[in-house]
Amino acid sequence: MNRAALDDQLAAATDEQGARLRRGAELGLEPGETNHPKLAEAILKWQQQVLTGRVRPCGHLLPDAPQPAFVALWDPSRICCLACISRLPEPDQIEAHSCDLCRRYLRGQITPSVVQVGPVLLFVGVCPTCWNEMQAGKS
Questions:
Q1: What is the distance, to the nearest Å, from the Cα of residue 82 to the centroid of all Cα atoms in its chain?
Q2: Which terminus of the chain, N or C, has fewer Cβ atoms within 10 Å?
Q3: Where exactly are the structural domains of the chain?
Q4: Per residue in 42-71, pLDDT tens?
Q5: pTM of this structure
Q6: What is the number of other CB atoms lying within 10 angstroms of the CB of residue 138?
Q7: In the 8-state DSSP scheme, what is residue 68?
């Protein structure tokens, strides 16, 4: 595939995820902001894992065919397409109540959120402190 076609597919996948994120917000899903320092650090770490081959893609994700993809920050070793999203692991009981940014355990206080990183939607659980910091960065 030539570079222009690859860039077009990447842009289309990114636009599709942006639309999906907006629809999720309409349904009450809390979109987060990537400007939080701990989230930016987690995203960078995940990107490094991708580049070094430590992230397992589902069989539908191919490097020469960009498409929307999904990752759960509580298990960033897997990435999948929309058809395989049900295969993303659910957080265990400890992880479900732990902030993916500061790692504090706060039973019943974690807000599920999602952030967009290009054509990838990254699911993340955030404590009230980190959530407030993320929201403060929106302005």
A1: 13
A2: C
A3: 3-136
A4: 888 988 998 899 999 999 998 888 899 999
A5: 0.81
A6: 9
A7: -
